[in-house]
Amino acid sequence: MRRNILPGLLIVLVAVIGNRLSPNFLDFAYLRDSATLVAELGLIAVGMNFIITSGNIDLSVGSNMVLTACITAKFMVGGMPAPLALLLGVGIGTLLGWLNGVLITYFRAPSFLITVATMAMYRGAAKALLGPQSVKAPSGIVGIDTQTFAGLTIPLLILLVTASIGAFVMQKTIFGSWVVAVGSNSRTALYSGVPVARVVRTSYTLTGFICGIAAMLMLSRLGLARHDLAMGSELDIITIVVVGGTAIQGGAANVIGSLLAFILIALLRSVMGVANFTAEYQMTIIGILLIGMVLANRLPLKLILQKLRPKSQRAP
Amino acid sequence: MKRFIVPLLVIVAAYALLPRLFTADSTNSILLWLPLVLTVALGEFLVVVAGGIDISVGSIMGFSSMTVGIVFKANPSMPLPLAILVAVVCGLILGLINGALVARAKLPPLIVTIGTLATFRGLAFLIAKGETITGSYVPDSFTKLSNHGIPLGEVTLNWLAITSILCTAAFLWFTTNTALGRSIFAFGGQPEGALRRGIAATRIQTTVYALSGAMAGLGGAMYLSRFGQAQPGSAGSGFELTVIATVAIAGTKLTGGAGSIGKLVVAAIGVSALNVALSIQGISDDWQTLVYGSVLLVMVCADSFRRRSEVVV
Amino acid sequence: MVEEVESNGLADQTGLIASGISLSFGGQKVLDSVDIHLEPGRVHAITGENGAGKSSLAKVIAGIYRSESGSISFNGANLNLKDPRSALTQGITLIHQEPLIFPDLSIGENIFAGNLPKRGPKIDWDLVFQRSRALLDKLGSNLDVRTSAGTLSIADQQMLEIAAAMSYEAKVWIFDETTAPLTPTEVARLFGLINELKQQECAIGIVTHHMDEVFTISDDITVLRNGKKVVQLLTQNTTKNEVVSHMVGRELDNQTQCAERTDQEIAFQIQNATGPGFQAVDFTIQRGEIFGIAGLVGAGRTELARAIFGITKPTSGQLKLDGQPYEVNNPGEAIKAGVVLVPEDRRGAGLCIEQSILDNTTLPGLNRFASKIGILSRNKAITTVLPKLDDLATKYQSLDQPVGQLSGGNQQKVVLTKWLLEEPKLLILDEPTRGVDIGAKADVHRQIRHLASQGVAILLISSDLPEVLSLSDRIGVMRKGEIVGTLAAAEATEALVVSLASGGQG
Prior knowledge:
With 316 residues, chain A is mainly alpha-helical. Chain A is 72% helix and 3% strand. Chains A and B meet through helix 6, helix 11 and helix 13 of A and helix 5, helix 11 and helix 13 of B.
């Protein structure tokens, strides 16, 4: 719980700033719609939680989403029925995620190097496929972000459901325990019979699957696909995970915290939008937030809290 | 002998496939790319040898090229060495920020430089105040550095290339003949052991990130000279990928501790030639990211595969 | 009979004097106002149980940890040891238990790393190689100083660290459990070197809990317990029993009786097996039998254990468990078949150190605490784990406590609990009591016997000869990857085992 205090305070702070900038800021529909704009990032952050908790990282998620959206849009333009194309899109995302996992576990390569490479490859493939053009999605699938159910937009509902499932899987299932163990000490995990490589592969495949869903949501929201969409989105996603309280070195997860962090990022993005910050300034603020949060986690906060705690609870 | 086989094979294959790559024109084009790639790669090389990674170099280039451009705009008659000094100092300061976060605050290098990649790019916009540096602000004498120099027949060894060669020599000397330079290799190979020998992590990490920043700063000046203009959003953007690919192609141990500057030069020439080859072949820019990504992936896999047996589980 | 030396030797100003040294980690006191005086020309043993603070004291003197109070002086001059470098330049050096070398650098550079000699602004590489050659000659080694250090044995790696210390012309030497990875010949050579340093009027400290070593090499003994200095003794005036009772703070009852056992059916059988690190290994273990494997470090014992556990694979030979062919590809399959391993490297392979006791103990058998669709039940886990932990007399505050907060002995009990939950048929123990204090060691031994009495076959690998001899029903001795002899408990003696293990006799 304590880990969720800082994001909570930041949310209040950002909301107060937003309210000062624009009197209409704290309107539910407005906030909902601005959160919907970044719902894909929150969604992928759920998957990224598993990857980071297992002691790895994935820099290719944004590229995966874009390539998946581009290929799917191409198929749709080529006449493939929309439901089939959407399914295929989710499949492509899954496949690209799985490929990361296979490369990392087979070559036992550092995950950040493999995914730096696939980040370039996936986006490069999108660029090679479409060039500078954008592909329009058929009107039938456009606009899912404007449909609401129980007061929330469909993307936000999907995010809520995914995060809940993610949190449940992480905390209450064998697979979740395995992910934590692998990130905590992969050798001990192996010696305890945990199928380490499979756990890592599954985390990447799962994230790929979520990237596929996110790609379809993005396609529907924007109504088009282009190679330069979602540039730098891995920054937002990693920031969401870190701000949410998941340990960057692995072994400790907080999926619900990520949901809180998503709200923070969504609010922050929309405040910055109100304040007319350009995309680059927004990116800068997110970058500073990321470094600030890892820095805050590294501060001797633990020691301070330990001193504040009653004596009986202290470590022997 | 063995180590010459692969580069030799690559050259032969390249000649067979693309003889045009070996004309004076192409060589001059390669020499336009080489200084940028090599200079920035030198700094990244040290970071990787020390067991770290710096993916903010592209943004540092962007920031320094904007700064130099702005300084030129305010003072068109500024002496060129001073302009270059400004670029290096800009990079050095940003590199020191990375260094402080990694060495002092003990944050993971990847996360730090993902964050500063974004932050430094924003700084470039901040100082540019929405403007771009167009050709009219950059003195001709400065752009001439990239296409004038020492003529060698039809080929011109431009001043930027000469600068990068001098930098290479300095790095070579630094890494073979100074205690600090050797400590970087010791630290990257076995950080704990280095500590026992009185080699302080803070000093090594601060040094490599500062140098990486300084070289990227110099790279920013080279960018401005070579392209004659700079935009805050695009100057140096994505260049980290080229540079990391170069370091990987050079066979640098990606977990730290070993690498050769000689091979780095060969790799930088290879990467520059690849750039030129792609454009000779009429392969559009659209394919370049894919090619770089693939080359990097192959190198990472090969590097890890070679060391796979060393991993004792 | 025992003469107590003045506990604070400040009257004598030569040598290294550390006084009032205190250190704590995360609020936990590791050293509490400890004094020690290392005199020139004398060897001072620093001993105590695991966790007594021996190594921490050594690391404070070597500048790796900073003392919170007190002072350190050398030959009367106060020292400010803020990092390892300042200690090294003052002539204070620490030889670590596990040498760490730079695999990609040359042997010569390994010796001089951090201390490379210069001519003008440049490193004088000729001098580096010349001087490292001379240092290695002095140590009786003929390694090529220009080759890379990547493939050296542990003993050679340690030699590089010693040569490095010699390059500083160190006057104060501390050896921290340096003999652990060495063969008897290498130990003898090391002791020869220590005696030589003693002749050269160096002040020497050796950190060890091996009484044999203490009495072979030392002149003075300081005993630490729970971070406090208990007593300082003169070696010639004391006895092993006296030192041990100071270490433990109570008398020990040696319960080493071995129950007579009757022959039972064979539980595990390994026939003519060859694999990475071992060849032609042949033995059987009956149900309820403890089969000990003795041998030197590097004899292939751990490699054999890893192959049986499915981490590596035997290239040939046959393994049988309960009469059925036993062939596994990974530890998961081994565990399923009923074979478990308590690894040598407890922190690195036995535990997830920052995870809770509950998480650690339930990790291999999570499916047992889960519903059909894989949802875990915390209550089920707690009710299963609690009694097993109590059986082993594990001391802890709560099941959610990170295992890193437990002592070495209690950590090992957590590892054992983890495997007891699996109800194994074959339990492989690799150095089960390394780094475990004497009290917990007895608990672990009792549990091993108890398990055997319940019919579990036990393969016990240990470098602690008294442990192997007192626990095992039969002992296989390994040398260079082969089992060179199998002894029944009745006929096995330390001398016999050592001579087989080191190839002393045909």
